[in-house]
Amino acid sequence: MKNRMPAQPPHPADDVLDHVGYRLKRAHAALRAAMDKALREHGLTVPQYSCLEVLAARPGMSNADLARATFVTRQSMNVVMRGLLDAGLIDRPGTVETGRARPTTLTADGQRLLRAAQESVYAVETRMVRALPGRRLAALIEDLDRVAQALDE
């Protein structure tokens, strides 16, 4: 461990607060806080809302697939699902004929709550996107995809 050279930063930065990773985390934290605030009026958490959004687009997903799609652990998804089931927002069979995965779907109440919550969340995203100058949204989306792909390797 002695005689080790200090690690070199990946790009010029005067301060850790200027690193890309820090800036990305700061943007994520701001988005999360704004979503938490917007969803509070609907009685939802961000993971619950994300689960409803994904199920609306892809009904029938399993718990494991939902966990991957919403960036939570399978154990956390179990808690999310239990809350949504208890609130009558999702439905899933008690048993399945084959395999273990029980397909989940939105109930009519879940669809109604999702539509109301979407208005609030989409307003947050609109505020975020409007902060981008000109036509930079498409480039930002492409760049974020590239960053994710680079880190997934």
UniProtKB/TrEMBL annotation:
- Source taxon at top rank: Bacteria
Molecular function, one GO term: DNA-binding transcription factor activity
In Pfam terms, one family for this protein is MarR_2
Cited SUPFAM superfamilies = Winged helix' DNA-binding domain
Q: Which PROSITE patterns match?
A: HTH_MARR_2 (PS50995)
Which residue numbers delimit the HTH marR-type domain? Answer: 17-149
Name the record gives this protein: MarR family transcriptional regulator
Lineage per the UniProt record? Bacteria, Bacillati, Actinomycetota, Actinomycetes, Kitasatosporales
